[in-house]
Amino acid sequence: MTAENPNPLVIIVSGPSGSGKSTLVSKLRELPGTLFSVSCTTRPPRTQESPGKWYDFVSELEFERMARQGEFLESAQVFGCHRYGTPRKWLDKARAEGLDLVLEIDVQGAAQVKQKIPEAVAIFILPPSRQELERRLRARGQDSDDSIAKRLDRARKEVDRYREYDYLIVNDDLDRADNTILAIALAERAARGRMQERAKAILDSFGG
Prior knowledge:
This protein has 208 residues and is α/β, with parallel strands linked by helices. The protein is 44% helix and 20% strand.
């Protein structure tokens, strides 16, 4: 990849809480030349979360200031409470450094990004079933029964929007799901439209 790329590959990964999307996004870290955005949120950090790794934790006032100044590529309110947003600076950084950008965002945010960047590649992670999703949520031991019920209700609404995505991955086997998400990213990198400039340079070396 060149030092600058005005049109980086943008990969969106969405899925219900408990679908395993964060684990699959971590797999994409194995790909060189990939940048991961860190979302801002107004919710407090969980015990195992450190600021700056998956989220930057900000106040409502700071989030509102960023929104007013147009600093978000996308933003959404979840469960009518906490707010989440992807700072636009990550897209600017990907362009400046010639990197591909990975966004782990919900269906609301994904729709906003696709409006602004229609060529973005959207991947939806499906759990094997509602029953398995509930089992995973309970196994985490992080949520009350009321919170789990809300997450399951939200998951039903999110799953209903899978048609808006370019790819679907059923996360019933982690190794297979890992291989699939890597294959999608590599195939999109090799797409003719994205390789046009490099292909032209190679053709020129042949005197074509």
